[in-house]
């Protein structure tokens, strides 16, 4: 027998359920465009993951879902190529390039933003011009120079130029340094600190978001770089990076799409983890840069 008390208890519950459902549908309607764009963006990645877990026959069929999941594909990738060697080369290239960009770009950005010296505006124009200069313009003279130094076939042509500054990183850091209040720098000068002490003790700690963004940009560029490693170390297989090795792997196993997608997923995984771990610092550094000119 249904009592009045039980009906009273059920009515608010059903009303709350209807309200939650209405709010959910309203949220879906308001963000429908964003949801569609996210699905379109993630669809290729989902296709890679699903294909990487299929058998060879399933990858060549019209099946979209692996059955059963074939985790041995990743083991086959490791055994069929020197993946750890190429990953080590890529990590050396990415880490040393990032260190070189930071070491060379931070002092230049500080000099262009905080120091008053003759020719500063001209130097800034040169930096902007270098940022707009296409790579194809300088690649031939650079290759000739590195060939005369007998560096072709090694990772040195990819790493050493980063220790001489990067135009984009210098400009990005300069714009962020301009947002730091001048009072902090003046207070350090009053206390007797030199320019290097001000840079390391005041500016760098306050500019961690921008420095993190520059470091992430540089690391991702080096990790994904294909043209540079192909040009300079393409003939020396022991110094291949993952991008060159993946292109060669794809040419050898172009019919076995499951192994190709498994190798692609292993190539993408480290940078995905890095970006997710540093996402907050990256977004903060990008959004806070460029407030002042």
Strand content: under 5%
Say which CATH homologous superfamily of the largest domain is assigned: MetI-like
Main sheet characteristics: none
Order of helices and strands: HHHHHHHHHHHHHHHH
Helix content class: over 70%
**Mean pLDDT rating:** 83
Number of helical regions: 16
Alpha carbon gyration radius: 27 Å
What coarse outline follows from CA principal-axis ratios? flat
Structural class: mainly alpha
CATH topology group of the largest domain: MetI-like fold
| Count of domains | 2
Examine the secondary-structure arrangement and name the CATH architecture of the largest domain. Orthogonal Bundle
Secondary structure: number of strands = 0
What is the class of the largest domain in the CATH system? Mainly Alpha
Structure keywords:
75% helix; MetI-like fold; mainly alpha; flat; 293 residues; 2 domains
Commentary on this structure:
This protein folds into two domains: 4-75, no CATH class; 82-287, MetI-like (MetI-like fold, Orthogonal Bundle). The chain has 16 helices and no strands. The radius of gyration is 27 Å and the shape is flat. Helices cover 75% and strands 0% of the residues. The termini are far apart. The chain is mainly alpha-helical. Helix 14 runs antiparallel to helix 15 (257-277).
Outline:
The chain contains 16 helices and no strands. The protein is an all-alpha fold and about 290 residues long. It is flat and about 70 Å long.
């Amino acid at each position: 027998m249904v009592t009045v008390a039980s009906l009273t208890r059920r009515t608010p519950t059903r009303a709350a359920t209807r309200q939650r459902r209405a709010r959910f549908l309203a949220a879906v309607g308001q963000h429908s465009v964003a949801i569609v764009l996210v699905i379109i963006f993630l669809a290729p990645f989902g296709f890679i993951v699903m294909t990487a877990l299929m058998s060879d026959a399933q990858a060549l069929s019209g099946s979209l879902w692996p059955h059963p999941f074939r985790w041995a594909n990743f083991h086959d990738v490791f055994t069929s190529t020197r993946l750890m060697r190429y990953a080590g080369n890529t990590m050396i290239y990415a880490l040393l390039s990032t260190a070189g960009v930071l070491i060379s770009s931070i002092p230049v950005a500080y000099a262009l933003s905080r120091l008053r010296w003759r020719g500063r505006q001209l130097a800034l124009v040169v930096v902007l011009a270098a940022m707009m200069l296409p790579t194809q313009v300088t690649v031939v003279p650079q290759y000739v120079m590195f060939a005369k130094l007998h560096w072709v076939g090694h990772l040195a042509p990819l790493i050493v130029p980063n220790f001489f500054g990067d135009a984009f990183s210098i400009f990005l850091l300069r714009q962020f340094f301009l947002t730091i209040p001048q009072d902090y720098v003046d207070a350090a000068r009053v206390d007797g600190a030199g320019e290097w002490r001000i840079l390391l003790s005041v500016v760098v700690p306050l500019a961690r978001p921008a420095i993190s963004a520059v470091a992430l940009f540089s690391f991702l560029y080096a990790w994904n770089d294909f043209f540079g490693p192909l040009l300079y170390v393409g003939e020396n297989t022991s110094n291949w990076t993952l991008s060159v090795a993946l292109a060669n792997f794809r040419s050898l196993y172009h019919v076995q799409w499951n192994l190709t997608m498994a190798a692609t997923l292993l190539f993408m995984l480290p940078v995905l983890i890095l970006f997710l771990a540093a996402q907050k610092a990256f977004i903060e550094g990008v959004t806070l840069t460029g407030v002042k000119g």
